[in-house]
Amino acid sequence: MTASTRDWPIIIQGGMGAAVSNWRLARAVSSFGQLGVVSGTAIDLVLARRLQCGDPGGHIRRALEAFPYYETAERILNTYFVQGGKEVDKPYRNVPMHTYEGSRRAQELAVAANFVEVFLAREGHDNPVGINFLEKIQLPHLPSIYGAMLAGVDFVIMGAGIPVDIPGVLDAYVDHSVASYPLRVAGALHGESYRMTFDPRALFNGHFAELKRPFFLPIIASETLAIMLSRKANGRIDGFVIEGPTAGGHNAPPRGALKLTEDGQPIYGERDVVNLDAIRKLGLPFWLAGSYGNPGKLQEAFDLGAAGIQVGTAFALSTDSGLAPDLRRALVMKAIRGGAHVHTDPSASPTGFPFKVACLHNTLSEEEDYAQRERLCDLGYLREPYRKQDGKIGFRCPGEPVAEFVKKGGNPEDAEGRKCLCNGLSANIGLGQIRENGYTEQPLVTLGDDLANIAQFCNGDSPDYSAVDVLEKLLCTVTY
Fold it and tell me: What is the pLDDT, as a whole number, of residue 370?
């Protein structure tokens, strides 16, 4: 590890799920001196539902008081805040879906929600804080990144796609200029291109002080992508998180023809191992991720020239994470007793990427629970934009009713086995929707293969441990 590398964090806490990596977890990790990361996935929905639960502790309202655009904050509170919390058997009020043209209310909520999450993660210390986005969820990118920068975010980390245009967005927002981002549209004709735009000065009124440009770390699974990004990105790349197929959440698909194990999991081979020699030649810092959550692997990463590691699963199961306590404890106890299992499902995610699913009773990992759920898409974060015959953009989701998906030009085979990640991830943090027929959305927990090793952070048979316990364990034997 070189002297220049020491300026970077050794441990990056993964940005997991919808508010599993919440502001409390990120603040705990950053306060300790490593890089705490909040998840930007569906954070507008999370904020709205927290407010409808009565905002226990007043944290959301406190952060909104610091939001620089007062009228927007007031409008959000008037729309979603329920004093004392909504009745437990009543459904949540949903948030507006993002559109290609840009829904004003959706954009305002996205800006404010990302601001709030970063603001709360940065309270009480002066250390860096990051935010994680999925490139596949493109529609909210522009207002979300702007909101995070308004709160002074230090790192933007992005995976599940090719974020070649993100550096230019970060550069534009330093002085609140208009930013644009390309939208992938299925069925677009040759020569057609679609770019979303976001103009902060057109949306808000107020004082526009210069913002800090955060570092940008793409998450990559091949040296080819790292080389392409370093050459073709429309601005500065500051380093890479190199994620292997044992990491939680979405995995890059295996290279070549898809082959499955007997139980239906993708088979990864030598072609899927990143060439670190090629990465080192780029001269940028990198962090290794995917089953690196133990002290020996951290030292191994240093020996390979990495600046450090990214760790997700160990933090996701800590008491500081946003994962519902009953889910967290059940998963940790399974690991302690040797019964933990994570299945890499090639079909579950509407994105088409393989998705890690932790097997647990009374969650959508169980076929009988999945079969009881009526297919619908009412949150829409993973919808696919497609070109309609009249040239306008429509949206479809492989997780919606199959007939509706096919009517919009979708292939029925693409809908087979798809699960609603949007609603499942919301249920993971105790914010699952309650349907009018009485059905409550069930969790769909994603973790990495390191779940099997989680007992190293526990004392005896207790499933409870903190983020600081993880950090102290990982750093206890490190030399550099």
Answer: 85
Residue 238 inside a domain? The answer is yes
Ordered DSSP codes for 77-110: HHHH--TT---TTSPPPPPPPP-SS--HHHHHHH
Residue 190 lies in a domain: yes
pLDDT for 4 beyond 60: no
**How far is residue 292's CA from residue 14's CA, in Å, rounded to a whole number?**
11
Contact at 8 Å (CB) between 348 and 421? Answer: yes
**Residue 102: domain span:** 4-323+457-475
Number of domains in the chain: 1
Q: Where are the strands (E) in 121-280, listed by range?
A: 129-134, 155-159, 179-182, 195-198, 215-220, 240-243
- Non-local CB neighbours of 438 within 8 Å, separated by 6+ positions: none
Q: What is the three-class DSSP state of 218?
A: strand
Which residue in 266, 50, 23 sits closest to 121, CA to CA? 23
CA triple 292-294-296, angle to 5 deg: 95
What residues contact 208, with CB distance under 8 A and at least 6 apart? 175, 176, 200, 201
pLDDT in tens, 110-143: 999 999 999 999 999 999 999 999 999 999 999 9
pTM of the model: 0.94
Collapsed DSSP state (helix, strand, coil) of residue 70:
helix
For residues 247 and 268, give the distance between their C-alpha atoms in angstroms, rounded to a whole number: 13
- Residue 164 CB contacts under 8 Å (≥ 6 apart), including other chains: 228, 229, 232, 233, 234
Distance from C-alpha of 345 to C-alpha of 353, rounded to nearest angstrom: 9
